[in-house]
Amino acid sequence: MIPFATFVCTKTKQSSQKWLARTTLGQTKVETEKARGGLYCVRLSASIAKPTTATDIRKTPPKLSDEDTNLLASLTLNGQQRHLALRTFRTLQRHRTHCCVTKPEVQHLDVVDSANGGVIQYLLAACWKWNFSVFSLDVATGGRSVSVLLLHLFHEYGFIKEFRLDALKILHCFTLVENGYHRDNPYHNAVHAADVTQALHCFLQEKTISKHLTSLETMASLIAAVCHDLDHPGFNQPFLIATSNHLAVLYKNFSVLETHHWRMAVSCLRESRLLDHLEKEVCVKIECWMQSMILATDISRQQEFLEKLKVALKCADLCNPCRPWSISKQWSYQVCEELYQQGDIETELSLPITPVCDRTKTSVARIQTDFLRFVVTPLFVMWHKILSSPLSQELMQHLHHNQIRWDELLQYELEQLDEMSSVSEEAAMDDYALLVLEKDNFSTLLKEGLIVTRFFNDVNAT
């Protein structure tokens, strides 16, 4: 009996074949020949010594030079922790495995839910409602909320039939997009992309917007929505510039994240070949429309894009405070956790800690109170004036209710702080005002919020 081995067959023009069986003990020659009556004759030779092969040579570890030895010694530092500068770059792509961001208490369901009464179909049927919970969809789809939602929307809008799109290419494209989001990000992940896309879908149902858009522009807007934070590293632009990030160098410190999101979106479209059958002019128009929509999410360039009424995606991106309290609260904790993670990294790198990212001095209630007051409220007041619809009225009601809830939580925190440290409430508020309004350490988000406020005041004055 021949032990388990790897056989190499040498075919000849004759009826016989020669084999070479390689084992750990050596090599054995095996020769087969077809005899009369359809039988095969097998001849085995004695084992021969195993010669040295190229594989054996490769297995032998090469001898390191003195320079390599010194380099390894400087990296290991006698088993101590390496300096942060020598570690893997923190903002490189982290592969996103297909699992839901939230921790479900139910068993994952299949992505393809063909049953009409299935959970996924039930959730998708309500995606036009503002109280839609993308967290539930993420749990039901096992972490594939982006690809499932976009395939459903493309079917509902009739894009598959109108533009002769391949359903498999649609799934491939948005699976690439889904994988492009970093799962480790508490906020800027694929679930956030699905949430923004669903919000934009609600806005596109308004006649004030839909009557000005063609089918091609509507499709490009949905693609821009799902790709608006693609490959987001989980850090803001000032951090990327301060750490000499490769993205900041590549895009010359100007709209770093937004430009990178747009280029990543174009790469996913081209790699999936979703639009290859369309004319070149149509593809260019879609890419240019996506570029203008994604760059509009840069708040510092708000005035430029408001003049072109490209504010829909920006409102969808910042719509979490306008959701029902249960959904809005969950998003608030996740975005603050991402801010706190940046503050932790800034501490490790001995960088000045952004005030809004310091978990030891700011709370979720403090961050959300100012964010809603300085950034969200001015934006959605103007958005309500543009839409003037029941949907915009619902947004403002949720925003007002959530603002009250966060103010109550902040007041409770200040009272607890007063009891613990014997500091008056007035002094605590003064300290907090210095933390937020100090010019040199002003948070980027609050800076942009004040810019938004000034701009809207100028618009109202004119």
TrEMBL record:
<keyword id="KW-0479">Metal-binding</keyword>
<dbReference type="Pfam" id="PF00233">
    <property type="entry name" value="PDEase_I"/>
</dbReference>
<feature type="domain" description="PDEase">
    <location>
        <begin position="112"/>
        <end position="413"/>
    </location>
</feature>
<dbReference type="InterPro" id="IPR023174">
    <property type="entry name" value="PDEase_CS"/>
</dbReference>
<dbReference type="InterPro" id="IPR002073">
    <property type="entry name" value="PDEase_catalytic_dom"/>
</dbReference>
<protein>
    <recommendedName>
        <fullName>Phosphodiesterase</fullName>
        <ecNumber>3.1.4.-</ecNumber>
    </recommendedName>
</protein>
<keyword id="KW-0378">Hydrolase</keyword>
<dbReference type="InterPro" id="IPR003607">
    <property type="entry name" value="HD/PDEase_dom"/>
</dbReference>
<dbReference type="InterPro" id="IPR036971">
    <property type="entry name" value="PDEase_catalytic_dom_sf"/>
</dbReference>
<dbReference type="InterPro" id="IPR023088">
    <property type="entry name" value="PDEase"/>
</dbReference>
<comment type="similarity">
    <text>Belongs to the cyclic nucleotide phosphodiesterase family.</text>
</comment>
